[in-house]
Fold this sequence. Notes:
The chain has 190 residues and is α+β, with helices and mostly antiparallel strands. Helices cover 18% and strands 41% of the residues. It has three helices and twelve strands. The protein has helices at residues 42-51, 149-154, 171-189, and strands spanning 6-11, 21-25, 32-38, 60-66, 71-77, 83-87, 92-98, 105-111, 116-122, 128-133, 138-145, 159-164.
Amino acid sequence: MLSLSNYFIKEHVSFMKLSDTYEIIDPASGNKVGHARESISAAMKLLRFFLGDYKMFMPTRVDVTDINDTVLFSIKKNWLWKVSVLDRNGNQIGCFAKKRLAFGNFFDIFDGGGSKIGTVKGDWKGWNFKIIGENDGEMGTITKKWAGIGKELFTSADNYMISINDDRPDLERSMVLLAAGLAIDTVYKE
Length: 190
């Protein structure tokens, strides 16, 4: 799954959901290649039930798995907005730093050693994002896909495309860039 350059992300729609689930699809073949599932405790689900729209401020963990449900990496956010990308063994391979009060800049991307490798920048409506590398080259894009009037008006479920343009020198960098695309919806916007 991590060898792909394009990923179609489809959020599951459900009534009164307290955790999110996403299908990861290869847009070239239309085949499902993985999942991204939020993994939170029963206590956090109960807290979300009562706080509703404020769940974006709460800690969360999203496990990204292949089609056989083998965990490839995880995205973990604590109470203080620190977002880490962890490999399957729990080692940090990257992190994100949210840019507060900065119009158009969403968050910076760092590798496991703490070196900044890019920034995610969005448009004013929050539907289109670019992953810009440190040399100002475009490393990828995240684009929301219109899901139809009924789904857009009555649910918070989103569909979007993640395209990675980076030459991807290693597997960890692939995971961090895919995690950056997933984090927009799974961690920051939900």
